[in-house]
Specification:
alpha/beta, Rossmann fold, DNA_methylase_N6_adenine_CS, S-adenosyl-L-methionine binding, globular, 11 helices
């Protein structure tokens, strides 16, 4: 009923926020690396949700478990799920104010600290759709600090997609939580598929971008992640990891793991010429 009402089969759902490292453009490539058969699906670094939404569409019937340590992002999924019509109305208000005074409204909203869940999420989505390159970044105090982007029509409200996402999140096939990646993978069982898409390790000293939350994702976190991958492998899970094509990442996985290079764009690069031609790694235990 919900899929017919919102046309989920005709129009695949898409991420409702832009997210650094989002996988929407390379889903066809990643799909070729998925295990042929698996039980439940687990994604401990949810981000914009492109891979999760792919798993929830196209007639698939897998139960999905997703998580992210970014509390504001997880709250956004919850509000889209539970209060989508109120959210659409709030975003329409933002769109009207933005069209009347782009810079004034953007920086007023960026400086605001709303307390209600609806106001917080509509603020987050508005800033995400109108800020520079859709870059989500907070400083050490947890303050969003990205400047206004240059858009003629940033698409602040996509009511059809928001309703489709809401229907999917209410379908009973997906759970979303706010946990550390180790905790979020605790329930993965033998035969389940676990996909890790963490903040990438920097490919150079000037290319670092790991500040999705107040804490960076550094070398110690990468080592913890590699250890978790090994434990899941021993448990009999199908494990897949995306990350930068760097010696540091490769060093954590031995010959029993398969490593492939894939081409991917860097959508948040300030230099448009530096957004293409990069390779990243897809690592699996199968």
């Amino acid at each position: 009923m919900l899929s017919q009402q919102y046309g989920l089969e005709q129009s695949p759902i898409r991420p409702f926020v832009k997210w650094a490292g989002g996988k929407r453009q390379i889903i066809p490539v990643l799909q070729g690396f998925f295990p042929r058969a698996f039980g439940e699906y687990h994604e401990p670094f949810l981000g914009g949700g492109a891979v999760l939404f792919h798993m929830l569409s196209g007639g698939r019937r897998h139960k999905c478990h997703a998580s992210d340590l970014n509390g504001e992002l997880v709250l956004a999924y919850e509000v889209v799920r539970d209060s989508v019509e109120d959210l659409i109305s709030a975003l329409e208000e933002h769109a009207r104010a933005y069209n009347a005074d782009k810079s004034g409204h953007y920086y007023e909203v960026r400086a605001a600290e709303p307390r209600g869940d609806l106001a917080r999420v509509s603020r987050m989505i508005f800033l995400n759709r109108t800020c520079f390159n859709g870059l989500y970044r907070v400083n050490k105090r947890g303050r969003f600090n990205v400047p206004l982007g240059r858009y003629s029509n940033p698409g602040i409200v996509n009511a059809e997609n928001l309703r489709a996402v809401s229907a999917t999140l209410r379908s009973g096939r997906v759970s979303i939580g706010c946990h550390d990646f180790v905790d979020s993978a605790e329930d993965a069982k033998r035969g389940d598929f676990v996909y890790f898409d963490p903040p990438y390790q920097p490919v150079s000293r000037t290319a670092s971008f790991t500040s999705y939350t107040r804490a960076d994702f550094g070398a110690e976190d990468l080592a913890r992640l590699a250890g978790l991958c090994r434990r899941l492998d021993a448990r009999g899970c199908h494990v897949m990891l995306s990350n930068s094509n760097t010696p540091e990442v490769r060093s954590h996985f031995g010959n029993s793991w398969k490593t492939r290079k894939v081409r991917a764009n860097r959508a948040i690069n300030s230099d448009s010429g530096g957004r293409s031609g990069h390779t990243e790694l897809v690592i699996t235990n199968y």
